[in-house]
User: Fold this.
Amino acid sequence: MIIPFTAALTDAEITAAASLITDILSSGDLVLGQHTEAFEGRAAAMAGVREAVAVNSGSTALEIIFSWLDVAGRTVLVPTNTNYATAAAALRAGARVELYDSGLYPDLDDIAARLSGSVAAVVVVHVGGYLSPRLPELVAMCERARVALVEDAAHAHGAHLHRIPAGGFGVAAAWSFFATKVVTTGGEGGAITTSDNALATFARQYRNQGKTSDGVHILAGNSWRLTEIGAALGTIGLDQLTDDTCTRRAIIDRYRRNLAGTGLTFPDIGENNQVSGHKCIALLADDIDRDALRAAAAEHGVTLARGVYEQPLHRQPVFANLNAGDRFAQADDFAARHICLPLWRSMDAGTVEKVITAVAAATTAAR
Ligand SMILES: Cc1ncc(COP(=O)(O)O)c(C=O)c1O
Assistant:
């Protein structure tokens, strides 16, 4: 059997979800009902904040936050090592996007150098579900500059640093519940978390065609609601999130212990901190060729997926007009040298062992 890089729901989970879906369809209550409310309660608790607003994607969550921050005509600093959506959402909200350098973590010196009076917001992305150990410094830097810090927490469900959960650092966080994330709302979905009640009210209206609860259109909003089915599936996922992140973390720790000395360096997470386990990231030593490593691992029956982002935003044609002429050394180095090891929460010990054996052999073959 070829070991893939991720895996779907278990049979028991599919049976439980199917029965819930049947109940929702029979009730006829398909949007903005009790399941959305329950999901939002769980999402706010995950981020350790007062409010959560469910929406139909991480991209729309970001765009609503940027619209609330009134970024139109102003600059939003976005890491170049991120998903298309982080920059695209800011552009759609009318911002000028300026990229800053970032590897796994943001380059704080580069952010500091780019902070000016025209900057409305800085976005930090918790790539792969890893939280930068320097987040507290970034928070302080943004506070001093009176600039909003927005967390793109699309990968970071359940991660925490010094007991502060992802979502607890910025004025708001955007979450994705897309199919591949640690928790999914059935394929597509998102949420905004914040302790700013006014932002939460804006987001509730924006996602529902800009309507107040009395049905009056006061904003140029959109139809960006999450379905009740999506919310119910997401609630199941959030209820088991702590167990899931612990399971994923144990696998990451095992990879790290057993692959030490093979030319793979794993990020230092810290005993009391937690990652989401969206990805298990490792950096390759300079003398290991990544394509050769992948080919050798495949010969041993292990699929090494593409990296988180192998082409940072400054190398994407659609963003060619951003930051013309700037160099992003950390992003380019990270993009060229990282790999993601197979990781899913129901991964059994035997499979993990097979991956370790295959990757250890592949590192030798790829030198
Ligand atoms: C870092 C990051 N931000 C935002 C998004 C957008 O989320 P969605 O696909 O739910 O719109 C993604 C999607 O993968 C992402 O990886």
About this structure: Residues 100 and 167 are 21 Å apart (CA to CA). Residues 241-365 form a domain with the Aspartate Aminotransferase, domain 1 fold (CATH 3.90.1150.10). Residues 57-59, 82-83, 85-86, 125, 152, 154-155, 176, 178, 190 surround pyridoxal-5'-phosphate (CB under 6 Å).
